[in-house]
Amino acid sequence: MPNNKRFYQLSSFPRESKDSRYLADGLINCVGKPVETSYFSAMSCIFCQIADGKKPAKVFFEDAQIIVFADILPRAPVHLLVCPKKHYASLLDLPEELLLKLHETIRKIATELSIKDNFRLIVNNGAAAGQIVEHLHFHFISNARGVKLKLSE
Ligand code: 5GP
Ligand code: ZN
After folding, report:
1. Beta carbon of 125 within 6 Å of any ligand 1 atom
2. Are residues 44 and 25 in contact, defined by beta-carbon separation less than 8 angstroms?
3. Most CB within 10 Å of its CB: which of 63, 76, 113, 122?
């Protein structure tokens, strides 16, 4: 195997944990084998599939470059995932221009939902930091109750 690429040792993911469910789409035929992470981009990345409209999601907002959808397992009354449509695994790979657009989108979400003073942003960057889906995303989380989210399937 080349040294300059990262590999998942898929067998290391706990089979019964909630995390394995998220990975199921990408793991078919690969469990237990080392797999080059690039195999996960585009073809099998869950968020690429959502961005392409090939996998359903409750979408809050989208334009040509960005999609915002509800987390399938919300940890708070408002839990949205703010993603570039294009696959970037790491925040450090993201072009600055797109980072600015994501920031602009985050500002719009907070303003539109009237929670400018009550939200958190989380980026789990890298598997060791808890990143499960290897497609860069910001968790937009708020404990504000009674927020009406208009989501389209
Ligand atoms: P990470 O740990 O990678 O930062 O977070 C991944 C997030 O994606 C988790 O909060 C998880 O609940 C969410 N997630 C995983 N699979 C899906 C899916 O198929 N659809 C949606 N909407 N969210 C997902
Ligand atoms: Zn992707």
Report:
1. no
2. yes
3. 113
> Do 74 and 123 sit in the same domain of this protein?
yes
Considering the entire predicted model, what is its pTM? 0.78
34-36 vs 59-62, strand pairing mode? unpaired
* Domain-embedded: residue 8: yes
Instruction: For residue 113, give both structure tokens.
Output: 């939902």
For ligand 1, whether the C-beta of 73 sits within 6 Å is yes
The per-residue pLDDT for range 66-107, each reduced to its tens digit, is 999 999 999 999 999 999 999 999 999 999 999 999 999 999
Sheet of 78-84: strands edge to edge?
59-62, 66-70, 78-84, 138-142, 120-122
Q: Is the dihedral of CA 4, 92, 64, 119 positive or negative?
A: positive
Same-domain status, 36 and 84: no
